[in-house]
Write a structure and sequence with these properties.
Layout (H helix, E strand, L loop, with lengths): L20 H8 L3 E5 L2 E4 L1 H20 L3 E2 L5 E3 L8 H4 L6 E3 L5 E4 L4 H11 L8 E10 L14 E11 L2 H21 L5 E5 L9 E7 L5 E5 L6 E3 H6 L13 E15 L1 H6 L2 E3 L5 E3 L1 E7 L1 H11 L1 E2 L2 E2 L10 E5 L4 H16 L4 E4 L6 H11 L3 E5 L1 H5 L2 E6 L6 E4 L3 H15 L1
Parallel strand pairs: 3-7, 19-20, 19-21
Antiparallel strand pairs: 1-2, 4-6, 5-6, 7-8, 8-16, 9-10, 10-13, 11-12, 11-13, 13-16, 14-15, 17-18, 21-22, 22-23
The protein binds adenosine-5'-triphosphate and magnesium ion.
């Protein structure tokens, strides 16, 4: 991709009123644009990152038997009657009427909708277990959306729903999804803690949250630095403890961002919708359910919160908008030719390349833009480098570049591919 042709360009001023690093940096670099509080457009660079996160999520959801589907966002009032959430969850819903006075809301979660659909297809123990997921926008009337992509009023969610014959089958499946979640976050460059949390409007029992330690977080967790144990502060207040279940008494508190949440729903929704099946003895039984959410946009915002410096973003290779930022300095004819040649050979080798081919931009601006956009590998070609038949290669995470002879570039990048392969 030629940077001169890119729909967006960087801006130097942070957006007015922005307090979080993700909102500032993503906006300044042209990845997102705020339409209203908590409502964002994903621009070409931002969408590339989001789609990479989606691809990772899809791979891991498919690996635990999830089948992708897509439910509507415009939902009739009648969907919510069996559980009573039209009234009990009214605070979070955007409700609307059509010209015939029919009432709807914009989907803020889909347990009710998927349970009604499942009722048409699950009748017998032979139809179980099943797992389906979607990646789709949700709408919630969030009171204070002020953390960029971390809290939107319209935001993307991957929601997986699983259906089981009994609790034992759910209990066997559930940890597989927790493992898939761990893989997703690790692959996205996020270190998570699995945190016990209250169930909110979904379930009366505890739920499991995946939290990333960050001062930008709106949650607080209590965790044990000596083992894996962690509990959301909200739940901890209800169930305080002096030491963790492993007997460590040095519990710590930290701010964190909830990137995923999984719920053992039990039979709450299946009973409300009379979603039952006939067991082997022909007896009618309620289906046991669970739901599992991840916010891909929030994941993207969180990656920026934990991977940035004072110059800009530092994308992990797995989710970077491009693999390489090829920066041409000066407009010497031979240098231009060399940059074009490098761009095509790298693309032939399967790398995605953002080629800064702009002529009307200073060296300083080009390098600042590269730092702000945060592509993991920067390759600079200039007259000086061209004379040495070399290019200057710098990892975004490192301070100093290395000089690589252009003849050896293929080999150098093959090594790099191995290295990032090992980390993903
Ligand atoms: P929070 O407590 O942060 O408001 P929640 O517990 O209400 O979130 P869930 O219903 O558990 O959210 O949603 C599943 C996932 O969707 C969350 O773990 C998070 O990654 C994402 N998510 C939830 N609300 C938002 C939002 N307003 N903006 C962006 N992502 C969100
Ligand atoms: Mg949650």
């Amino acid at each position: 991709m030629r940077q001169s042709q890119l729909f967006t360009h960087t801006v130097h001023e942070p957006p007015k009123g922005a307090t979080s690093a993700n909102q500032k940096l993503l906006t300044m670099a042209g990845f997102i644009d705020q339409i209203a509080a908590g409502i964002y457009a994903y621009l070409p660079l931002g969408l590339r990152v989001l789609e990479k996160i989606h691809a990772i999520i899809r791979e891991e959801m498919n690996a635990v038997g999830g089948q992708e589907l897509h439910m509507p966002a415009l939902l009739p009032k009648s969907s919510w009657t069996p559980t009573g959430r039209w009234d009990s969850a009214a605070d979070v819903m955007y409700k609307l009427k059509d010209t015939s006075d029919n009432e709807y809301c914009l989907g803020w979660t889909h347990e009710e909708v998927i349970t009604a659909i499942a009722k048409r297809f699950i009748h017998s123990y032979r139809d179980l277990p099943k797992a389906v997921y979607q990646i789709q926008d949700k709408f919630r009337n969030e009171a204070r959306p002020k953390s960029g992509l971390i809290r939107g009023r319209e935001f993307g969610m991957k929601d997986l729903y699983s259906f089981h014959a009994d609790q034992a089958d759910l209990d066997a499946y559930y940890p597989k999804v927790l493992d898939a979640y761990r893989k997703i976050f690790t692959r996205c460059g996020l270190e998570t803690k699995l945190v016990e949390a209250p169930g909110g409007s979904f379930t009366k029992t505890f739920t499991d949250e995946f939290q990333v330690l960050s001062d930008a977080g709106e949650d607080t967790i209590v965790y044990c630095p000596s083992c894996e144990w962690a509990r959301n502060k909200e739940l901890f207040k209800e169930y305080p403890m002096k030491e963790c279940p492993n007997g460590h008494d040095n519990l710590q508190e930290a701010k964190s961002i909830e990137v995923g949440n999984t719920f053992k729903l039990g039979t709450r929704f299946s009973e409300a919708f009379k979603l039952t099946y006939h067991d082997e003895a022909g007896k009618s039984q309620p289906v046991v359910m669970a739901s599992y959410g991840i916010g891909p946009g929030r994941v993207m915002g969180t990656i920026v919160e934990v991977h940035h410096d004072d110059k800009g973003m530092i994308w992990p290779a797995s989710v970077a908008p491009f693999d390489m930022h090829l920066v041409r300095l000066g407009d010497d004819k031979d240098v231009c030719k060399e940059a074009d040649r490098l761009e095509s050979t790298m693309e032939e080798d399967g790398w995605s390349v953002l080629h800064d081919d702009r002529n009307d931009v200073t060296v300083g601006e080009k390098l600042n833009d590269a730092d702000l956009i945060g592509i993991p590998l920067r390759i600079v070609v200039s007259e000086r480098m061209h004379r040495q038949k070399s290019a200057e290669v710098k990892m975004r995470t490192e301070k100093q570049p290395v000089i690589v002879p252009v003849k050896e570039m293929g080999e150098y990048l093959a090594e790099y591919r191995k290295k990032i392969g090992e980390n993903s």
